[in-house]
Amino acid sequence: MQRFDLIVSNADIVTVGGRFNADIGVRDGRIAALAHGLDPALADQVIDAAGRMVTPGGVDAHCHLDQASDDGSKGSDDFLTGTRSAACGGTTTVIPFAMQFKGQSLDEAVADYHRRAEGQASIDYAFHLIISDASPAVVKEQLPRMVEAGYTSFKIYMTYESLKLSDREILDVLDAARTLGALSMIHAENDDCIAWLTERLLAQGKTAPRYHALAHSAIGEREATHRAISLSELVDVPILLVHVSSRAAVEQIHWARGQGFNIFSETCPQYLFLTAEDLGIGDDFHGAKCICSPPPRDADSQKAIWNGLANGTFTIFSSDHSPYNFDDPQGKKLHGEDASFDRIPNGIPGLETRLSLLMSEGVLGGRISAERFVELTATAPARLYGLYPQKGTIAVGADADLVIWDNDLDKTLRHVDLHSAADYTPYEGFKLKAWPAWTLSRGKPVWAHGAYCGTAGAGRFLPCAAPFPAQK
Ligand code: DUC
Ligand code: ZN
Ligand code: ZN
């Protein structure tokens, strides 16, 4: 008779392939049995799911934790506080970035981020690389070594002075990704459009946070999205467009899919639940709380993003968690409260609230199915980044990363109830119908009875497999 460390009984299990009721037997951190009527006497611990929905632990494939900067700013969350807040919101795997400074080797960048995560993370983690220096040594010698070692996705910026690559450099990185079977993630905004619009707005005295949304226009996002698609077509390699915010960009992706191009795309909660109006009225500096790039758009774009989630245009749903404290001289007030919008650090918190917002408004709001929720938040990111089936599903042999949901809540989202080190949430006062009752990371509770119960250092590094066949 096989014994279990844990049985989660009477679970309404949701996977991409369907929904079924069963007990989940867990041994040594993995799912060892999915069956009806597992004998509770065979387990050290039993959690009665009481017919509640159980989904795979969330895989948040876009978050910035303890990311270095060269301008004196400092993000709120390190690996301790970021993974803690992720766990409390139902996420059990994060993929933050190992960022390369220009002139730095990828080996140094990766070693630096391993040091930052060591002993801190309470859930499992992998790394994407940010490539800001596409020199031949990096592209030809270092990238192959990195892919071999389990870093199989690269973020490429088309904007931000210290990070952006030229189209020529992007082609070089895409070509390397093709040869290695890796995935390039592209931040698509037209840098010259942003610079030109910013200069004009500032010259007109339009400096308040809300002008950030005008400087980062949907037209610039559409153009860069189309250009990224064209570069991917030229090299004949898949790409992922990250944090898609506007109807105009969604239409480009839809078009590219129609052409048969291998284009993946990601969107984030801020493009469903915020608009440019959240960047403030008049000169109100509080609008800085919602400054991120691309910025939240309008109701029409929100509708296009919801449609894209429902109809399959989007592959994954991530947070782009990149918090800066509002009341902090290293955060949103880096250059004081009178700073022009272009000097305010970009990014907002979202790791902890990603799943509950989408469960509440997407699944319980009748916009997407529970199966699609699982696909967007866990299965597809695990597949795309080479972590499936260890992560992203509920199946025998998979890690026992599970969320047991309370789905009949009438809860108000409050920053004081969250576990990130960020000093605000952009979703203050939002109504939620759902929140995890339990989050289990490899069979161990990290969130239960309304409290964090994880352990710093329990999270393991996950080397990723290359998601695509290598091409000559
Ligand atoms: N934009 C990014 O590209 N990354 C982090 C945060 C942001 O706003
Ligand atoms: Zn980005
Ligand atoms: Zn980001």
UniProtKB/TrEMBL annotation:
Keywords: Hydrolase, Metal-binding. Belongs to the metallo-dependent hydrolases superfamily. Hydantoinase/dihydropyrimidinase family. SUPFAM superfamilies: Composite domain of metallo-dependent hydrolases (SSF51338), Metallo-dependent hydrolases (SSF51556). Residues 53-446 form the Amidohydrolase-related domain. It comes from the Bacteria. Its EC number is 3.5.2.2. This is Dihydropyrimidinase. Gene3D superfamilies: Metal-dependent hydrolases, Urease, subunit C, domain 1. Its cofactor is Zn(2+). It holds the Pfam family Amidohydro_1. InterPro entries: Amidohydro-rel, Hydantoinase/dihydroPyrase, Metal-dep_hydrolase_composite, Metal_Hydrolase, Metallo-dep_Hydrolases_sf, Urease_alpha_N_dom. Residues 4-47 form the Urease alpha-subunit N-terminal domain. GO terms for molecular function: dihydropyrimidinase activity. CDD domains: D-HYD (cd01314).
